[in-house]
Amino acid sequence: MATPLTDQEKRKQISIRGIVGVENVAELKKGFNRHLHFTLVKDRNIATPRDYYFALAHTVRDHLVGRWIRTQQFYYEADPKRVYYLSLEFYMGRTLQNTMINLGLQNACDEAIYQLGLDMEELEEMEEDAGLGNGGLGRLAACFLDSMATLGLAAYGYGIRYEYGIFNQKIRDGWQVEEADDWLRHGNPWEKARPEYMLPVHFYGRVEDSKWVDTQVVLAMPYDTPIPGYMNNTVNTMRLWSARAPNDFNLRDFNVGDYIEAVLDRNLAENISRVLYPNDNFFEGKELRLKQEYFVVAATLQDIIRRFKTTKKGTPVRTSFETFPDKVAIQLNDTHPAMAIPELMRILVDIEKLDWDTAWDLTKRTFAYTNHTVLPEALERWPVELLEKLLPRHLQIIYHINQVHLDRIAALFPKDMERLRKMSLIEEDGCKRVNMAHLCIVGSHAVNGVAEIHSNIIKTDVFRNFSEIEPEKFQNKTNGITPRRWLLLCNPGLAEVIAEVIGEDYVKDLSQLEKLRDFVDDAVLIRDVSRVKQDNKVKFAQYLEKEYRVKINPSSMFDVHPYFSICVHVDVKRAAPGYHMAKMIIRLITAVAEVVNNDPAVGSKLKVIFLENYRVSLAEKVIPATDLSEQISTAGTEASGTGNMKFMLNGALTIGTMDGATVEMAEEAGEENLFIFGMRVEDVAEMDKTGYDAMLYYKRIPELKHVMDQITSGYFSPKNPDLFKDLTDMLLKFDRFKVFADFEDYVKCQEKVSQLYQNPVEWTKMVIRNIAATGKFSSDRTITQYATEVWGVEFLNDIPALLHAAV
After folding, report:
1. Domains in the chain, please, with CATH?
2. Which residue of 152, 592, 629, 750 is 20 to 30 Å from 300, comparing CA positions?
3. Is the entire prediction scored with pTM above 0.70?
4. Which residues carry this modification: N6-(pyridoxal phosphate)lysine (predicted)?
């Protein structure tokens, strides 16, 4: 039986999500029972909580499909310019609660489930996270899809339907262990397979007279997921591709009795969509990763061109590509989908028979590229040898693009061979490689960074030679987060407190949070914000005790580092399976936790907790309970970050460096309302010139020396004193992030944090100032800027309402 509602929960039924209608509840209960019986073929005697979740999910989806169909009909009839967001990652998390909120159904569903004698929270916990992303890149894509639908853009997300998502992280004896994330094992009620739109994707083969022949074919099966806008009639589509082997697989082998070999060949073809970003330490891994990247763009471009050519009944099919950039905008989310550029050129030149110059003009006007990093290891470079084997025609096209590009540079800068070398798409040093970031820049009409500081770095440093020639091409689009998931869903108590003060419109216009500045000293608001934070901390403490068997004091400060998974210091991080140093950092955290948490003198005052398997649904619990958010990257190394924005919106204060979007957070809230420490970008640049010597800091700072000596002596690893030698050697001898240089300032800043935390009223006032300053960091603002400044698309706010909400 469900727990009876508290008075506060009953009050929330009259909230920004609307008043429950008796007829809506009755309709939902009827739909729930119908799906339980006829879709799941169960009754209440044998149904499990997962069955109830699926029945509810299908019931909610019933309210989506009519809007979904009508939205696509409207796009077909109006024929607007469409946006195609290409990303190898979409970190969607759970869908049920987000859909209920965006459709305005949550209160009615809560009441219906309550009347059925079930526990809504238990049903929501049955849903698997759709972890089709490693972290920030995929979560940003998910936020963008929500905003595009909410703003009424004709937009589509395209990616891969990985059979196994981001691995499940377990901590055993202090070490990270990776387990497969079989997120589809129970099925996915939100997706719809579209076998009628299955498409061929080609690999290998050879080039004969500029024709790609003798290829191996893999089929791309699309699965569509509806993306509802918030409280409007728009439901867009995320289309994810799954690899399938052709039906006529290797009959020759089958006929001679080698059935097993034929089946194994089939499995190899389908491995393309098997797992998210395989470990690429080995050549086979790199080949599979490149296959993934080409697979998604090849299928997507065929689909885009099919849709472009299709027109309303009674009118001719489009055969001219002259208007292609007027109807199609393709955004490349990092370099992973970069092969879309030579692929579109191949289609236009080899298949549609356009001349090179016309095809290149159309291609450049179609694509835009978002850069997400300045770190060298994250900028993709593919071996020419691998491309020649896997995609021989595309390598020819890349060579031609590069030749035309270098001819232009040579004309602008005669005899400047060094500039030509730096700007070439082909890196000649050692193993010849294709620089995918350079390909994206040359093949796009717009290039953007994701925070002001990051965009300035790529213009003045990383891609300086390119920006000098085409400065108008380079833009900034500071990242954002959707307030629907990252406030309304994960922190309904705070959302309600804000609505009581400034009204409900901020959910679709986050800039209205500025109105809270007038209430910073309001005693009622201070009390309510503080109460909500404490409620969230109590709830999270209960979760920790249940799931991690760790008891903490909810009155402690909750201090969270979002990249490494009280004062209660909570670390949340995953290490890529092939990233040795990251795994060692996690092992050090767990080793420190073992010592600190079991120390009788310290354990009652300080807890160190590593939250394994950090994911979207866990972040939705952690973030609302956090008091202090740690954003401590070395200045100039973090592109933007969005975790910092989520913590800020949910009432956490920030301790951090002036890096990524934290710089703009300080500008919006006032630097005095954040705890800023450490070097600035110019300080780091100066240190690069003069040199950084970690040993100088080690010898000069007693606390730092003591910490390092404890680690190196085996204090945290008595059975293996040299366990962390790789880490300490890196910090003392090879640390390009210059961690020690910021240590003293960080310690002093933490003292300021502790001092302010002793004054709850002043702390909460600073919290309110921060919340009031988060308006800029809505993904609605980011997408509006993309729409007007990059894509040139219109906002379609007039999709007619349905006569009936459910179909």
Report:
1. 1-78+95-126 (no CATH), 86-94+129-312+321-379+443-479 (3.40.50.2000), 483-678+757-777 (3.40.50.2000)
2. 152
3. yes
4. 646
Q: Which residues of 255-266 are buried (b: 16+ CB within 10 A; e: fewer)?
A: eeeeeeebeeeb
At which residue do the structure tokens 């990524």 appear?
660
Four-residue CA torsion sign, 102, 107, 111, 117 = positive
Distance of alpha carbon 120 from alpha carbon 142, whole angstroms:
24
**Separation in Å, CA 310 to CA 222, 343, 706:** 18, 21, 69
Tokens representing residue 131 in the block: 């972890």
Rounded to an integer, the average pLDDT of 17-30 is 75
Q: Which residue has the tokens 């020819």?
A: 396
- DSSP β-ladder status, 216-228 and 82-86: unpaired
Q: How confident is the model at residue 375 (pLDDT cuts 50, 70, 90)?
A: confident
Is the pLDDT at 16 greater than 50? The verdict is no
Per-residue H/E/C for 462-531: HCHHHHHHCHHHEEECCCCECHHHHHHHCCHHHHHHHHHHHCCHHHCCHHHHHHHHHHCCCHHHHHHHHH
Residue keyed to tokens 């030679």: 465
Q: What are phi and psi of 554, to 5 degrees?
A: -60, -15
- Per cent of the chain over pLDDT 70 is 91
> By the 8 A CB rule, do 329 and 84 touch?
yes
Q: Backbone phi, then psi, for 484, in 5-degree steps?
A: -65, -50
> Which tens digit of pLDDT belongs to each residue from 448-474?
999 999 999 999 999 999 999 999 999
Label the pairing between strands 82-86 and 328-333: parallel
Q: How far apart are CA 394 and CA 295, in angstroms?
A: 13
Helix (H) or strand (E) run with residue 589 in it: helix 580-597
